[in-house]
Amino acid sequence: xxxxxxxxxxxxxxxxxxxxxxxxxxxxxxxxxxxxxxxxxxxxxxxxxxxxxxxxxxxxxxxxxxxxxxxxxxxxxxxxxxxxxxxxxxxxxxxxxxxxxxxxxxxxxxxxxxxxxxxxxxxxxxxxxxxxxxxxxxxxxxxxxxxxxxxxxxxxxxxxxxxxxxxxxxxxxxxxxxxxxxxxxxxxxxxxxxxxxxxxxxxxxxxxxxxxxxxxxxxxxxxxxxxxxxxxxxxxxxxxxxxxxxxxxxxxxxxxxxxxxxxxxxxxxxxxxxxxxxxxxxxxxxxxxxxxxxxxxxxx
Length: 300
Prior knowledge:
With 300 residues, the protein is of the alpha/beta class. The chain has helices at 18-29, 41-52, 68-82, 105-136, 160-183, 219-233, 239-252, 264-275, 288-299, and strands at 9-13, 33-38, 58-62, 87-90, 142-147, 187-193, 256-258. The protein has one domain (9-266): NAD(P)-binding Rossmann-like Domain (Rossmann fold). Helix 4 (105-136) links the parallel strand 4 (87-90) and strand 5 (142-147). The longest helix is centred in the middle third of the chain and has 32 residues, at 105-136. The protein is globular, with a radius of gyration of 19 Å. The chain starts with 8 loop residues before the first strand and ends with a helix. The mean pLDDT is 94.
């Protein structure tokens, strides 16, 4: 938990838009030093200019979070400039859909590279720095928040790569929480599991690297993209709302952060099926019209 944010340092990946940018804005209001990390230069430049204008210290870095060397250079820069960060938000994420067997190696490399390896690099590089600072200063407080998704707790069809990446982030973060509790009381962790919130996630292919370029989309991938655009675009909870939830959770040492707690009924039915050895339940039980349309479209 972090009881006072003023003068503390926050590292935020995916800071050019969505949850990352909204958390950076709250961090600026609280007087934090901000390290803004993104792969999209125009968005990063705009965020840097906006947040510098508030008067806080800002470092902006163009980084592909899946790249170990780039992340190492970022960590070195942060340590040299601000020392150990107090708040690390491993938030950068991308999305790809379609039937599992229709996804290419490049699809898997891209999504797991950003969504999983980006979090792995953030955890392995910044956690030792934070623990070292805690060992030297009994008043040091640190917190790591990793962005997963409700897709990290559910297994909706036609979005398997995304589900796999986000389930991995949930498992990684739960284990990180337990590992930290074994060794230190000053650094903790949370996992953010948003449902459909209007951010840039459904258009993340805009930043897909040329060496992992997509092939011509299959029918299932086109259907998945359309469903994602509609669901994300119609979300009633804003990225600003979610950013406030993140800061409240960091202050309270609350582990699970949900944008839509009403979606937990689906999680409960999945968990009960696991415990009772039932086959996986219908993920569209609450919205049978959506499931029926998806099946009809795929079989058409």
